[in-house]
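Supplementary Note 3. Input sequence used for the single-chain structure prediction.
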Amino acid sequence: MGQIPKLKRLNLSRNKFTGFHAEMLNKDSDFIQLQELDFGYNLVTEQEALWFIPTMKHINLLIIAGNPMALQGKEAYAQLEMNLQNALSAVLINEEI
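The predicted structure, written as discrete structure tokens, is reproduced below.
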């Protein structure tokens, strides 16, 4: 899936994912055009499970609403949000859109 050349939006919400196996990605060729990732309503409990996202060069929107981590309050994902803003000027959304 990461090799789809012009993929810009990816909705992985509501799949009971606990994280994403970023170690299987080639950061130079996988998801190189991806701008928006919806990872909402999965089972992510730790922000570290999504730390690969700031390494994706074009991400500008990440949705985490409904994950256990997101429901714990902003301190549970503060580092992820800071990494996204610093590396990409991306927006992290933790609410219904």
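The longest helix spans residues 78-88. The chain has one domain: 9-93.
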